[in-house]
Specification:
Layout lengths: L1 H15 L8 H25 L5 H8 L2 H12 L8 H22 L11 H16 L8 H24 L8 H29 L1 H5 L5 H13 L7 H16 L1 H14 L1
Helix pairs in contact: 1-7, 1-8, 2-6, 2-7, 3-6, 3-10, 4-5, 4-6, 5-11, 7-8
């Protein structure tokens, strides 16, 4: 439903704006792959993981996507991103943050097992692959890229939903419908228009830095809406992950160095 509603909204918007695109077999396959990597796999993994862990913790795990991208982009592309010492330090901080986040679960201090963290990390890894794959769509209108990948995800996901969920048996409340429509139109359709504009202009790792903003918002909403508090180690784990992302980005340490140099002079 999330894929289909958001794809329908974007296709209608493209028609209203008069956007046209010639489809080829290669482009269709590329959209299917993008729908798998950027929608179907991570959305499913996050939804599965959140059956066990709080939304705030899922958001922290999701924020590790730039760290995966920092490692994979220099290995898989030639777009100028290189694996520097600063990026190595950033990845180290990120791994340390995930390790700290895992400690309460490993020691039995949480209601969920340590394996429940793996779906969130798998989703972040899938997002990193998707960001790298998405670079091939440079030159296409952002609206076409977003609609194409969501149509691809709908085509891939519909048979599985029919087979496993049997949606005709579900009795959905008005609150569920409102949540699903909001998720599809705001968090997905609108969100991907912004995301792909960032991706084609700033590159995969920089585009994924938006995940830096997700954890504080998710933790706050999780607390206010559901009263769920994160483990005590979640804060230091988040700080380590954010420090890692800042190192991967490279601009924050450079800014600090320039200010210190100016003050020294």
């Amino acid at each position: 439903m999330r894929f289909g509603l958001s794809a329908l909204a974007l296709c209608l918007w493209a028609i209203l704006r008069g956007v046209r695109i010639e489809l080829s077999l290669g482009l269709v396959l590329a959209f299917l792959a993008m729908g798998l990597l950027n929608n179907m796999l991570p959305f499913s993994l996050i939804a599965f993981g959140q059956q066990q862990i709080p939304a705030g913790m899922a958001a922290i795990l999701n924020s590790t996507a730039p760290l995966f991208s920092a490692v994979l982009t220099p290995l898989l592309t030639r777009d100028g991103e290189r694996f520097s010492v600063l990026r190595f330090v950033g990845v180290f901080f990120g791994i340390a943050g995930v390790a700290v986040l895992s400690l309460p679960a490993l020691s039995g201090q949480t209601k969920f097992a340590a394996w429940a963290l793996l779906p969130g990390l798998g989703a972040a890894l899938s997002y990193a692959f998707a960001a790298i794959w998405g670079m091939r769509f440079r030159g296409l209108p952002v609206l076409v890229i977003a609609a194409g990948q969501l149509l691809g995800a709908t085509i891939l996901g519909l048979p599985l939903a029919l087979a496993f969920d049997q949606p005709w048996l579900l009795r959905l409340s008005s609150e569920v419908w409102a949540a699903m429509i909001g998720l599809a139109l705001i968090s997905t359709a609108l969100g991907y228009l912004v995301y792909f504009r960032l991706l084609v202009n700033a590159g995969p790792t920089n585009a994924l830095l938006v995940t830096f903003l997700i954890p504080p918002a998710a933790v706050l909403i999780d607390l206010l809406a559901f009263g769920q508090r994160l483990p005590d180690l979640a804060l230091p784990a988040s700080l380590l992950i954010f420090a890692g992302i800042a190192c991967v980005d490279g601009r924050a340490p450079g800014f600090v160095r320039s200010k210190l140099a100016a003050a020294w002079r």
